[in-house]
Predict the structure.
Amino acid sequence: MWVDLAITLAKILFIIGVTVGFFAPILTWVERKQSAIMQDRIGANRADILGFTAIGLFHCIADALKMFTKEDFIPQGANKILHTISPIIAVVPAILTFAVVPFGGQYTIFDKEVNLVISDLDVGLLFVFAIASLATYGYVIAGWSSNNNWSLLGSMRTASQMISYEVTMGLTIVGVLMVYESMKLTTIGAIQEDFFKWGLFLQPLGFFMFLAASIAENKRIPFDNPEAESEIVAGYFTEYSGLKFGMFFMSEFIEMVTIGAIMTILFFGAWHIPFLTTATLLSWFDFLGTTGSNILVMLIHVGVFFSKVVFFIWLQMTIRWTLPRFRYDQIMKLGWKILLPLSLANILVTGIFILVLK
Amino acid sequence: MAYYVNRNIKMTWWERIYIPEIIKGMIITSRHFFVNLFGFIPFFLGTQKERKIMTVYYPEEQVQYPVAYRGRPVLAQNEDGHPACVACGLCEIACPAYCIHIEPGENSGKQNQYERWPDVFNIDYAICIFCGNCEEACPEEAIFMSDDCEISMLDRKKMLYTKEQLLTPVADLQKRIEFTRNMYAKWNY
C-alpha cells in the first residue's frame, strides 16, 4: 500500500514538475524565440548572468522575478474576494486535467504493475472536458469582478466563445469514442499501438475540427477575441498585475500542453512509435532482464509521448504566429454554422462506416 | 449586424474552404523557421561567411558605417600633434545650434611656427544636431564628422567635449577627408 502511494506521489510530482516547472516557464521563451525566428529576427537574448546569455533562457527567470516583485493591484470598486480567487479558478483546472492524462503504458517493474497515469478513470475523457470547462468560470469572474468595461467585454466574449466551441469539441470526441469504444484514455492510447488505428487516420476530419476547437478554447490567435489587444486592451485580465497576471499567463501555457497531450492521445498514437509494438521493444532489450527492459521501454515511451506533445505545441505556436485574428462574427459563424454541422456529419459518417464494416 | 465591405475579392472554392490556404501559409512560415533554425550552423562551423538572419547583435557586433555617415564632429590633429584648426570661427558661425565655442590663441610673431590655434574648443553634443555645416564651412580641413555615434551619457555635463577629447589624428580621418574633398570641392572656393 505504501509502495502504491509512493508511486502515485512520484507520478503527481512528475506531472507538476513537467507542466508547471518545465513547460510553463520554457514556453514563454519558446514563444518569443519561435516568433522571432519565424519572422527572420533573433529574439530575446539580452538577459544574462555574468555575461552568459544561454540563448535567452534567463528571460524566464527575469519574467518570474518581475512578476514576484510587481505590485499586487486591486482596482477601486472591484470585488476583492472574486478578483483574488479568479486566477486560481483559472489555473487549477489547467493543471488538474493532467490527473487522467496517461503519459505512458503499463510496465512491470520489480513484479509490480506500474500504470503511467495518476488516476485511470473510466470516464477519463469526460473528466478532461468537464474540468477544462471549469476554467471558464475563472475567466468570466475575472472580467466581471475587476470593475472595468474592457474586462467585462473580454469575459463576455470568453463565455460566448467557450460555449460555442465546447459544443463542437464535445461532438468531435463522440466520433473518437465511437471508433475506440472506450472513454478510458489509457485504453484509447493502448489501441493505437497499431499505426493504422491512429485517430489521425480513423478520424481525419475530427482531428482538424478538434485542433480548431481546442485552439479556440485556449483563446489564442486566430481565436483571441477575448484578449484582443487592439480592441479591448487585454480582455478579462486587463486589471491584473504581478503574480495574478502570471497565473493567467501560466494557465494559457499549461492549457497548450494539455491540448497537446489530449491531441497526442486521441489522434496521434499516444506514446507509441509507429510500427513498433511494445512487445517488439521489450524483446529488443530482453538482455536487461524484465525490470531493466521495462524501465528502458518506459523511458522511451515517455520521451516519445512528450516529443509528440512538443510537436503539437510547435504546431500551435506556428498557427498563432501565422494567422491573423478572426472578427467576432466570423468566430461565431465558424463555430455554429461550419464546425457544428461538420461535427454532426462526422458522427453520422463514422456511424455508417462502423455499421458497414461490421 | 456586421457591416460588409465589398472588396471585389473573388475567391475560388479551393480558397474558401480555408484549410489548404492555412496550410500553405504555415508551410511558408515554417520554412522560414527551419531555414533560420538550422541556417546558423554553417556560420558557426565556419563554412559559411554570412548568417541567414541578417540582424546584427549590436553591442557585440558592429557594422562599418558608410563614409557619408555623419557621426559626432571631431577636430583633425596634424602629424606633429598640433590641431589643424586656425580658430577662424567660421564653424561657430555656421553652426545652427550654437554648440561650438572657440577661444583663439595667437603666435606673438615667431617665424616658421603656427600663427593661430584654438586655446579652447568645446562642442556640446547635447546641443549638436549633426548637420555637418561646420565641416562644410571649415576652410582648413580641420573639423570632420566621424563615424562615431555612441555618445549617450547619463550626465548631461559630460557631453561637453573639450579640445583634448575632440582631437583625432588625421590618419584616422583619411576616408572622410577624401569624401569631403569630392563632396564640397573646397579647392574651388
